[in-house]
Amino acid sequence: MSIGASLKRLEDYNLVTGRGQYVGDLQFPDQCEAVIIRSPHAHAIIRSIDVEEARGFDGVLLILTASDLPDDLRPIPMRLSPDPILEKALQYPLAKDRVRYVGDPVAVIVAKNRYAAEDAADFIHIEYEVLPPVTDAVQSLEPEAPILHPDAGTNEMYLIHGRKGEAAERLKTCEHVLEEELYVQRHSGIPMETRGLLALCDEGERLTVYGAAKVVHFNHQLMARLLNKNIDEIRLVETDCGGGFGPRGEFYPEDYLIPFAAMRLKRPVRWIEDRLEHFKATNHSREQKHRVTVGFDGDGRIYALRDEIFFDQGGYIRTHGTTVPSLTQAMFPGPYDFSDIEIVTHLVLTNKTPVGTYRGPGRFEGTFVRERVIDMVAAYLKLDPTIVRERNYIRPEQMPYSNGLSALGQVIEYDSGDYAETLDRARKFMGWEQFAGKQSRARQEGRFIGLGFASFVEKSGFGPWEFAEVEMRPDGRVICKTGLTEVGQGITTTLAQICSDQLGIPYGDVSVVHGDTALVEKGNGSFATRGAVVGGSAAWHAAGLLKEKLLKVAAGQLEVPVDMLALKDGGVVYAEAGQAAMPLEELLPICSDLGISLCEKYTFHIEHMTYPYGCHAAEVELDPDTGALQILNYYIAYDLGKAINPMLVEGQLIGGMAQGLGGAIYENLKYDEIGQLVSGSFMDYLIPTSMEVPEVTTEILENYPSPLNPLGVKGAGEGGTVAVAPAIANAIVNALQEYAIPFTSLPLRPERIREALKQRKPER
Amino acid sequence: MKPAAFDYYKPETLDEALSLLDEFGYDAKILAGGQSLIPMMNMRLARPPVLIDINGVPGMTGIEVGDSEIVIGGLTRHYMVEHSAEIRDSCPMLAEGIKLIGHSQIRSRGTIGGSIVHADPTAELPVMLTALGGKVTVVSSGEERELTPEELFLTYMTTTIEPNEIVKSVHFPVIAERTGHAIEEFTLRSGDFAIIIAAASVTLDEEGLIESAALCIGGVDGVPVKLDDVTDELIGHAPSDELFAESCAPIVDMVEPEKDIHASVEYRKDLCVALSRRVLKKAADEAKLA
Amino acid sequence: MTEKTAESSRLKTITLKVNHKEYTVDVEPRMLLSDVLRDELRLTGTHVGCEHGVCGACTIMMDGRPVRSCLVFGVQADQADIVTVEGLESQDGELHPLQKGFWEKHGLQCGFCTPGMLMTACHLLEHNPDPSREEIREAISGNLCRCTGYQGIVDAVEYAAKEMRERAE
What we know:
heterotrimer; B: 290 residues; Uridine Diphospho-n-acetylenolpyruvylglucosamine Reductase, domain 2; Uridine Diphospho-n-acetylenolpyruvylglucosamine Reductase, domain 3; four-stranded antiparallel β-sheet; C: 2 domains; 5 strands; 15% strand
């Protein structure tokens, strides 16, 4: 059976031989290239744009500014969690009269190639009246702060208020109360391939656009709507995709501008975002400030939780609407059973690049805050932080469990799980019981070591539905069409394994087709760790229907009851004894003669998400001279119900951990006071290299299959990322127990560790 | 991120290269390894109208180790120094320090002369040249002159080399007897530009006391900074952890670094002290073994 | 200005050997080698990830050394001997042990960094047939990967080293 087996990926042959076809690899006759002219100012009024000199430049074919776009053009709408209140801050493909972040698109130049287009860029003259910017979410709420969108009248675009019970009242009765402020810095997915598009428009005004990713069918409809075209006149095609992670594949200004330019020129227009541009143009993520209050008793049992969150949205509302702030809130309680909760989130505009989702949106941030607070409660009470966790976990017998909060249009309801188990495994693996002794021996040698834990609950399997179409060809090969997309996660292999299992054929005989609106009739795409759960279930059912059909025909031919038969080893077998009954080579021509179509479609609907969970643990050593941090040991226990391909799950966890590590220590999209991005290159934005990412031990558990889908699966995409920062921060604090700095702010740079070593706690 | 257009010349002799420099003056940039220049050009932060590619000029590549001096041709690539057994024996600091430059791909192309004229004060070669008291030979049409590091480095990315001159060779002293070298840098991420870099050389006398020492730090000023006040105090003493700790502590008041997005002033000072202590100790340990 | 451009954009003819095949092309002096390979020679296996010499995706072998092709002008590759990812397979299409290793050990996800990683690792194994995990990590540290966390890549290089040693015996 191929489900559950660590099979080699079907994607890899092309990718290891240089035969991949990423959007930048495509070349069509007459192809020309676009460059986007972007605002150099964080906040300014556009007084005038003079493109005449650039227009006359050698090789220039087209220049567009906002005045060249249709008068009735609508701004880019929200894809997820839309709310009419937010519409006043949506982004138009080109800024009309005002720019709101460094990188805001102002004009497009199309030229014979990128070199010529960049040459001409110098000769577009834009006169700006610079306005004071606001670069901090809390300052943006102050009365004197400049308003980004005068129509909206405020920078506080949205207020989310979630509650269960009466936190304020409950806090008054708690034995102990702790208040803390914590901060997570801006960073983002930063895939190795930047975004890119290639649009072709034929004489009949039919558009083909390559380079779509993630949510191809949604963007297809949106593109048609914004370009005012019939949906049948546009084809979107996914190419190989050099990393998704959330930012890539959303509908951005360029997704309108490049097809529009191709329509104007009737020539293939390519746009490949360059790296410096990527840092300014593609969604940022993560920046939040939390003011948390918890009330607890002397045993560390936490009863009340209150949090006020300031969410830095950047200059516009983009396609995610309120997704990230509402997920932050709703998933904030994590694996714990708090009786009274109140969370208020301010969604605030600033003059910085707009934000969206990045792997584990809201959970990376919330898990850092929550798991640090748990350790602070333990430190306050001088208790073992793992014991405090145990005392607060939701117990398996409380499942299904709702924390009373909502996100993505549904109330959070954890389906199954035993949170204490993953912590317990982490404790054993890391030698927590013996660690205090090891730590004091190390300290005698002048070495600072520490061990930290962080528990988390993830969400996966976001609906509302996904589509699959499975067809068996006369030669026995299977084509599985899916509404999912491939962003490097291996969905091709995963779906092939699922079809293989149902149909009893080798997984290599399954071709998975995705991301082409001319070939796949509908789909919701790959995001929110939904692929294997929702798309996998759709493929399972579609292949199941096909199996039923094949067995029915075989049963008729063999004159036995259907339930005596099964599909295995490329043919029909007798289910009980397993001996061959009829090979497919015999069965398929019969189906063909009988005029039976061997193609089945299935749309799998799901109302509730499913919730995988786990525990991270980090052992670190700190260099007291420099503050440098070394990770000595890293462990992740993760229960996802059922792993379709454990090797790919492990790859997701370890790769996710590397991204979490980047967010924990290295990566920072930092702005100065005038709103310039000062870390916008690979020299200053520090993605961890092979020297920074440690060897990671993973333990994949399948103890609590999801009751919500036929495969029992929960997703694997984000659990490797979300708990890295608190595991490391808790380990640092554990190593520095007698020092005062609490490590409540990311990134955890060596400078902070060095600083902490200068501030010993007063004796209590 | 595509470079602006330029006129490209590829001289086949040094004389030809020098006369092109005479002709174009400030308009010309020399293209050697290109590992610092080309990124700047791709970002259009540098737009030289003329590039003179000297990679075809003969006689400027190679390592010659004499009795007291190592002569490295200006066009010698970093990896050649990295893989030279002679350099390992005759100048351990150079052998170690060269490995800290970027990553292997950068060292494949980057040149010794290029790193010197780029004059990044946190870069390994300027710091090593200063620490060891090396020299640089520059040539122009009809003239050749030798510059000490102090004469060469002016400030950030700026040297006293004239626009009509080329770095012909870079000279390092051969390590003396009873001498040890050490170099260490602090980066947030492997292979990055150093936040602070320190290099030291320590020579012991026959009794094992410190006879002479040199210490140089990069990352605190526009040029590598030699801390003779620190090393002067060491002379005549037996090397020990306490000695180095005591003598390096005052460095916090000797250096005046600037802050940037990666490190504060105070942190840089702390790093100077820590790295100085470490390289002096390591150099002394090496000297004992020598 | 226009006159200047005309002079500067005068094409140069270069001849270079890529994957044992000789090519002669006319290029603008400012055209980066990565663009020459991708857009002129249509060898798109070499990827461009940053164009400022940090990510390593564009790593190729040039005259026996790993080089970032975004930091070399095409004109500088005149007469050079270059190997790209497309040149790793044997003539009869058998995968290089590194390519096999990446496939076997899940050394890639999105695959964008893979060609550069392969070229860098290839150089490592030519000089060090039995590298430790630490040496592998050091060798590939100039190539960023955003998907794998590098562990699968280290496994893959170890796998390839072993296979190459066994073959050599």
